[in-house]
Amino acid sequence: MQSIWMWVALGLVIVAAVLAYWMFVRKPPSRNDRYVAETLLTPAQTNLLQYLQTAFPGQVVLPNVPLNHLVSFRKTADHPRSKEKLDLVRVDFVVCADNGKAAFAFDVEAYLQRQREHGAAQCKSQKPHS
Q1: What's the structural domain count of the chain?
Q2: 3-32 b/e with 16+ CB inside 10 Å = b?
């Protein structure tokens, strides 16, 4: 009879330890967390989005879309490396066709970068020769 009470006491100690851990050690989620909205689009991007919505009426225009949501690999020699590179690229805007696939993708930063590089190359070629 004494061994039964010893096991009951041991069980109660274990239950008490688990309850103490659950109540005091485990940190409950805070109900005082507050959130603030982040800027999704700059004013220039907002203007371009509105322009694209006007230019493509009735079609869905999405901003800041990861490229890996638009295309997949048909064939690649190094799938992990190619996927890693693709995961890093985003396009500024996508115009969707009726079937939900991308009809057009706009990467404004890449376009501006090419324009800057092209302008710099033209300036070098137009230098006066002495």
Answers
A1: 1
A2: eeeeeeeeeeeeeeeeeeeeeeeeeeeeee
| 104 contact partners, CB below 8 Å, separation of at least 6 | 56, 94, 95
Q: Is residue 8 part of a domain?
A: no
d(CA 24, CA 31): 17
Q: What is the CA radius of gyration of the chain?
A: 30
Q: Which residues of the chain have pLDDT under 70?
A: 1-2, 25-30, 120-130
Phi, psi for 32 (deg, rounded to 5) = -100, 5
User: What are the phi and psi torsion angles at 74 (to 5°)?
Assistant: -90, -40
Note the pTM of the prediction, 2 decimals.
0.58
